Amino acid sequence: MIPHPPRTLHYSTRAIKSQWSPVKCQHFLGFFAKVWCMKTMPNTNEEEKTRWIKPLIEKQVKIKTMSEICPFSERTLKYWLRDYRSSGYNGLINRSTRPRSQPNETLIRTKERILELRKETDLSALKLHWKLRKESIQVSARTVGRILKREGLTRKYRQRKKYPPRTKTIFLPGELVEIDIKYVPKIISGKKYYQFTAIDIASKWRYLEVFDDYGNYASIKFLKKLISIALFEIKAIKTDNDPNFTNRYTGYQKSIDPLNPRLHPLDIECQKLNIIHYLIDPGKPQQNGTVERSHRSDQESFYNRISYETIDELNYQIRLWNMYYNDLEHYSLNGRTPNECLKVQNVLS
Which InterPro entries match (predicted)? Predict the structure, then answer.
């Protein structure tokens, strides 16, 4: 930025003559008339610096005398002279003031651990922060995010439409469990398999089991196995409108008495177990969002990473994966794992 003209230029000739001797006054009036009465004003900082140090280089005036009238200090003029004599005109170009060192920089071994965990687990910055905290490595989630971004390990997200905030219902473990089916991506020995998934809304605790069929019998068998394994009492389940869960859009139409439709075997089993069976609206998988999101984690972190050739290998791997998932930190649990959440709820001893 080009500075304003020196303050002494606004003084009257009488004021200058009262401060200096006649010879000195005549010398400086002629000098500044030569310096400031140019046809063009300087356009860059380099031109401005050159304008002030050129008389000093040509020894037309002493630096101390120049500093009395120049808008810059004597020290600044000395810096400019030093830079000009060492590098010429290029030495007057403004250099970056960016710090060359950072005393609070993250340790190299911490950065390496962050990158190692990211490549192994593909977890987000906040989840990596929680894992590192358990390893006694104190680093903020924002720092982890900056390190991942600097290394090109982040992805760009599309901007989502903002909706007004809504209150979230707080559930107790077992108050509502979402159930859904995921197709196993790989065909084993020429046969398709199906992953039944149940996830508790409150604790995010999850149970998985693979079947070679997804009919009514498999649904009932999975529900009974879930009840026997779950560490809490299941009061209600929620499923989609698939025929292996309900007759609402298939068997109801075939019922002789519309007021007393034929119930699905799963509904009959739920009545025996005193469990409420909720259904989502047709074409609204978002209403079963918790289990759908867990299926995405299954695909990205399990099926895309492991290999299996037999159903026994798949069952073994999926048990290990389910144990890992129940010990994994969750955003909705504020960094706690499903098993830790059950301990807080006094479900686990």
Answer: Homeodomain-like_sf, Integrase_cat-core, RNaseH-like_sf, RNaseH_sf
Q: Is 189 domain-assigned?
A: yes
Same-domain status, 28 and 112: no
Cα separation, 11 vs 16, in Å, equals: 7
Tokens representing 246 are 């309900």
d(CA 284, CA 132): 38
CB 72 within 8 A of CB 2: no
Q: Are strands 236-239 and 276-279 parallel, antiparallel or unpaired?
A: parallel
How is residue 8 written in tokens? 């002494």
pLDDT in tens, 3-61: 444 444 443 444 444 555 555 555 555 555 455 444 456 678 888 888 888 888 888 88
27 in Cβ contact with 37 (< 8 Å): no
CB burial of residue 144 (10 Å; 0-12, 13-18, 19+): buried
Q: Which domain holds residue 35?
A: 7-92
**Predicted local distance difference test score (pLDDT) of residue 85:** 87
Asked if residues 46 and 88 have their Cβ atoms less than 8 Å apart, the reply is no
Report yes or no on whether pTM surpasses 0.85. no
d(CA 287, CA 302): 24
Residues 135, 244 share a domain: no
3-state secondary structure of 211: strand
- The total number of structural domains in the chain stands at 3
Same domain for 243 and 298? yes
Tell me if 161 is assigned to some domain. no
Tell me what pLDDT residue 234 has: 94
How far is Cα 244 from Cα 211, in angstroms, rounded to an integer?
13
Read off the pLDDT of residues 263-285 as tens digits, 9 standing for 90 and up. 889 999 999 999 999 999 988 88
Report the CATH number that the domain containing residue 225 is assigned in CATH. 3.30.420.10
More reliable by pLDDT, 338 or 90: 338
